[in-house]
Design goal:
Helix content is 31%, strand content 25%. The protein has 257 residues and is of the alpha/beta class. It has a domain at 50-73 and 95-245: Rossmann fold (3-Layer(aba) Sandwich). The termini are close together. The structure holds adenosine-5'-diphosphate and magnesium ion.
Length: 257
């Protein structure tokens, strides 16, 4: 069966051998200035290897969202360096002229709420980003169907988002995050609305994808159900990260997607 691995599109986007994953050094972020300035990140160091899924935990207000937004090029840090995939994207200033393209092609976002587009069916929700990246509608839809199959929601391919259960919507949003084969996936509380079985299913999928495509994945979470699944955890306190060993030992199996 065609799994997409032989198509030229996949060949081009699969060459990850030079990826360094995510490397963050001495990252600072100050909001505002003067008396009202808030130093949200005060020298964060973090490394996620290709194929690794790490947890990022910390109390409310500790800087988790700020860190993900800096990494996702949604806000600009005030200092430090960030490497994504095989590029230095920030070194005391952006080194990338087109941040929109960087976000579209290099970073997959998974949020707590799935944010599917209500007037597009499931397949088109997943196919949209590859189409924006220049792939034909036919190729983009074929890729979308492969991902939906891998995530066990292909039977809902023609449904509208409002017709899906919460777990199905979250799996579709993961398929969408993967559609452009980004070297980096950033997930902010991706399992919060899900029951235990579904939450662990989402983590299993993220681990399989990371292993299969050498994707570096960061999962921000408070979710006690999934914290034991990480091999490595960064705890963020007072704007600085502290690395901890997670409870998980086993390596996740590769799955063909
Ligand atoms: N846009 C902003 N302007 C000013 N301060 C902000 C802004 N966003 C976040 N902060 C502050 O930065 C700190 C870290 O916030 P945040 O990254 O949202 O933490 P978390 O996601 O861990 O709850 C907090 O003190 C918060 O009040
Ligand atoms: Mg937050």
């Amino acid at each position: 069966m065609a799994n997409g691995l032989d198509t030229p599109w996949m060949d081009a986007s699969l060459s990850r051998s030079t990826s360094t994953g995510i490397q963050i050094s001495a990252l600072h972020k100050r909001y505002g200035s003067g008396d009202t300035a808030v130093d949200a990140l005060k020298g964060v160091d973090m490394q996620v290897l290709p194929g690794e899924v790490v947890g990022l935990i910390g109390p409310s207000g500790s800087g988790k969202s700020t860190l993900l937004k800096c990494l996702g090029a949604v806000i600009e840090p005030t200092g430090g360096t960030m490497v994504l995939g095989n590029e230095v994207i920030y070194d005391n200033g952006w080194l990338i002229p087109d941040l929109r393209t960087l976000r579209r092609d290099k970073i997959g976002f998974v949020f707590q709420a799935p944010y599917l587009i209500p007037f597009l069916d499931v397949t088109d929700n997943v196919a949209l980003l590859p189409m924006l990246a220049g792939h034909s509608k036919r190729d983009a839809r074929r890729r979308a169907l492969e991902l939906l199959e891998a995530l066990d929601v292909a039977h809902r391919a023609k449904a509208m988002p409002s017709q899906l259960s919460g777990g199905e919507q979250q799996r579709v949003s993961i398929a969408r995050a993967l559609a452009n084969k980004p070297p980096v996936i950033l997930a902010d509380e991706p399992t919060a609305p899900l029951d235990s079985e579904r939450a662990l299913g989402v983590i299993r999928i993220l681990n399989e994808i990371a292993a299969q495509y050498e994707t570096a994945v960061i999962v921000v979470t408070h979710d006690e159900k999934i914290i034991p699944t990480f091999q490595r955890i960064y705890n963020i306190r007072d704007g600085k990260t502290h690395e901890e060993k997670g409870q998980a030992k086993k390596n996740w199996q590769r799955k063909k997607i």
